[in-house]
């Protein structure tokens, strides 16, 4: 009989990514829990899409109610999308006051990059060298998960990503300066090559790069370099946004810089396909003038209802405060774990990284990290890996994650580490 | 007090498209009907997103049920998306047996174009010269609604779109041949310029181009030219797909050609943001090998449930048969209407065009068409315009559109035309 994996390959083709050596067959979710087809329960320490918890009834009800009333595009007027944009923009402490609603983070980043083009009239783009910003052809040219066919186009420059253990320039104290110098050099190259410089796109938590520990102000020299060159700072908040980091609604607040454009995605409506680009009126006007943009599904009444309900739950259940409290608690417990292969344990809010290294304390311990992920899965705890060499454990649970959930994860991790070779 | 339009401009920026001189404020939908904020009812003769009718309870219930059970990505295994792809692919009469699920038609076309790149190793693309295939930066380079900043890139060639009243080459009888000759010339240019030829993307109803009357076999010479050059035929079924044309599930069946890749979008899940790319295993394998593609929301259990429910309703309510029956009936009634400005009334299934022309019988009567659209709106009938000069009335109602709905629309149109200057 054909297995689910065989059927999947027959219908979806080869190389369709799954998690784990033997993929999970998940059939039900609730809060921070997932159940597989055999009824086994897993603590979800990985998924950020179900931001306010799997299948949160308030979001499900909002979707069902609005879907039964009206679901049409924004070529007709409707209050709900405006109510949402108004509340969303109020979450930003500076002059980002307008938004475009789309369906995926990729669509949002595809627009953000064009905003930089529209404002500057230039096409040169900079990103970090181990990042992922989405899957449209345009956006994927910034990603390094798989270099584009024919190599990176001439208008793209990648700069070395910040790193806690192997700092850019070799020294943690000067990493911020050297990082900015590399951006300045990339800008010079783009200008010399005739592309000019349009913008720098980054995740303010450098989440795919490995979630390095960075001090507030780390990006100040870089932002100054970008601004001086007339470019835009494009901030991809798809992972750190919506309170994930506990101390603030947005990742850029933690570092203390003010992006020109912010993109939002996955957690925005707890799984409903919606995303957004938030920016200043001058940037929006330049984009709207240059590109005749319309998105059929983007910002429809059901999407807006799902977004509003998600925002409501974050506020009424105090999930940002919870991320701060449980984040601090769990990070401390994670940092109490010891094993010679642990190079650094770091985190902010409900976003944790544990980097595994070889005996020299620097070389990435990729296989070790994979074994830990598999060991945790065997103990019913779902998490994953990030980093240039996939040697960094990534924990990014749904936001209602409690201290006792943290205890469960930490205790299981302690057991897994205890059985790993020293 | 701030109006809804002012608020919209404040929050979404300038140039956000709406329908009508004074936009509608719609608050409720059911079947083929929409209601505005003042309780006025409108017959929807335009929207194809609510394919099986606005707020169809079976689709709403499927979404609500699945959203309350599980909504996660496809990195875990789940039957529902496979059940859907299997049923979807069974609707194709040839070897298109695999699919990628995404969130928007734009994402689907962005992939389809890359499939042509992956199979051929070339980058040259051809489209018709008055088309729209989506809003990512890559896909929008094929669209002519607004030419890209800096002009069309060197790897894109646009060929004149087929036309009922102003045939390519000047003669209806030879239009198919001349159309193919233009494609052949574009291929030669792309090859001479070093880009090579990857694929030709088209809507098989040429819906944005004006929905011209074309005989079965029209594209045969073109498909032969494309195949001979080693390129792929990429068929954008976002508008004609899912039985819209009555006589078949897909637009390409009406013309009788076999595309290598088919993209699907808007009507697929009755408004839930989902889309797909359907293709042969060899094309899929080439794409999956060349691009490491993953879409977070694409094909999640809720999207799959919405798609399955929509497919169920199309089948159980006999909506393809209804499109055929009501289409033939309504087209005949539309063709009975007379006014000197009507150049041609055409259609297929529940997709109608009425082209308005000046006294010479050829020059587009754009203002006349706009006045008719506004007049119909005043009578509570929603429709719109297409074509190079926006002089063609476009009717594309939800699929449960009945004969008596057709009567209402035709009678209102008769009244509007009777009051228009001769």
Automatic annotation (TrEMBL), chains A, B:
CDD domains: OAT_like (cd00610). SUPFAM superfamilies: PLP-dependent transferases. It holds the Pfam family Aminotran_3. One of its GO terms (molecular function) is pyridoxal phosphate binding. Keywords: Aminotransferase, Pyridoxal phosphate, Transferase. InterPro entries: Aminotrans_3, Aminotrans_3_PPA_site, PyrdxlP-dep_Trfase, PyrdxlP-dep_Trfase_major, PyrdxlP-dep_Trfase_small. Gene3D superfamilies: Aspartate Aminotransferase, domain 1 (3.90.1150.10), Type I PLP-dependent aspartate aminotransferase-like (Major domain) (3.40.640.10). Its cofactor is pyridoxal 5'-phosphate. Belongs to the class-III pyridoxal-phosphate-dependent aminotransferase family. PANTHER family: ALANINE--GLYOXYLATE AMINOTRANSFERASE 2-LIKE (PTHR45688:SF13), PTHR45688. This is 4-aminobutyrate aminotransferase-like enzyme. It comes from Aliiruegeria haliotis.
């Amino acid at each position: 009989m054909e297995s689910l994996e065989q059927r999947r390959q027959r219908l979806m083709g080869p190389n369709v990514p799954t998690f784990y050596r033997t993929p999970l067959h998940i059939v039900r979710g609730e809060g921070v829990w997932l159940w597989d087809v055999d009824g086994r329960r897993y603590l979800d320490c990985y998924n950020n899409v179900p931001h306010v918890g799997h299948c949160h009834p308030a979001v499900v009800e909002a979707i069902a109610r609005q879907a039964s009333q009206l679901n049409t595009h924004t070529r007709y007027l409707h209050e709900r999308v405006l109510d949402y944009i108004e509340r969303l923009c109020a979450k930003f402490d500076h002059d980002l006051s307008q938004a475009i609603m789309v369906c995926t983070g990729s669509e949002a980043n595809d627009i953000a990059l064009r905003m930089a083009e529209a404002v500057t009239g230039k096409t040169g783009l900079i990103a970090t060298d181990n990042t992922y910003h989405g899957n449209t052809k345009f956006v994927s040219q910034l990603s390094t998960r798989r270099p584009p066919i024919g190599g990176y186009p001439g208008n793209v420059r990648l700069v070395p990503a910040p790193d806690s253990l192997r700092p850019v320039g070799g020294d943690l104290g000067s990493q911020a300066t050297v990082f900015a110098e590399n951006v300045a050099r990339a800008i010079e190259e783009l200008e010399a090559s005739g592309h000019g410089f349009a913008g720098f796109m980054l995740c303010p938590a450098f989440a795919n790069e490995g979630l390095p520990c960075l001090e507030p102000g780390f990006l100040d020299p870089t932002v100054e370099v970008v601004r001086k060159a007339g470019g835009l700072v494009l901030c991809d908040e798809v992972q750190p946004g919506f309170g994930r980091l506990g101390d603030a609604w947005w990742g850029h607040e933690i570092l203390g810089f003010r992006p020109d454009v912010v993109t939002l995605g996955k957690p925005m409506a707890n799984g409903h396909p919606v995303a957004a680009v938030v920016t200043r009126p001058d940037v929006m006007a330049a984009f709207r003038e240059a590109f005749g943009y319309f998105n059929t599904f983007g910002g429809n009444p059901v999407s807006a209802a799902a977004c509003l309900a998600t925002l409501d739950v974050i506020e009424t259940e105090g999930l940002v405060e919870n991320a701060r409290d449980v984040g601090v608690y769990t990070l401390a417990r994670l940092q109490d774990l010891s094993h010679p292969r642990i190079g650094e344990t770091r985190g902010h809010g409900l976003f944790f990284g544990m980097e595994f290294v070889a005996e020299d304390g620097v070389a990435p311990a990729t296989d070790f990290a994979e074994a830990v992920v598999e060991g945790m899965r065997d103990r019913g705890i779902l998490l994953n890996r990030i980093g240039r060499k996939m040697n960094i454990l990534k924990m990014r649970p749904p936001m209602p994650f409690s201290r006792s959930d943290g205890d469960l994860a930490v205790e299981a991790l302690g057991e897994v580490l205890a059985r790993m070779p020293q």
